[in-house]
Amino acid sequence: ANVRDINLAFCGSECASVCNIMTYGLHAEWISRLLSGGVALPSEEEMRAECEVMKAWKRSWMSETSSRASYVLLHQTHYHDQLMRDMGEAPGRKWCLSEYFCPYQPSDYNGIIKSS
Length: 116
Fold this sequence. Notes:
The radius of gyration is 15 Å and the shape is globular.
């Protein structure tokens, strides 16, 4: 498959967090910024290498199942952080100790989704 073919995007298609509107909102914003030139993709080689690292890591501890690739819920905050970094936004959205001890909520991402 051609990794760099960005003519088609699926918002939320590979996430096992069915009830998590934050993930879908961040996906939609990431896709919007990508298609408008606000997010630069890494090279195809870098993307393939990252996919291999992720596959090896998941296979090292997740049970073998056909849906293993979409297990985002366990590491949702790290995934959201990566989307934020890709968009040039600061991933840390809370103050001081609350960053470590309080769960993230949709309000923590206020101001991220831009209106056109």
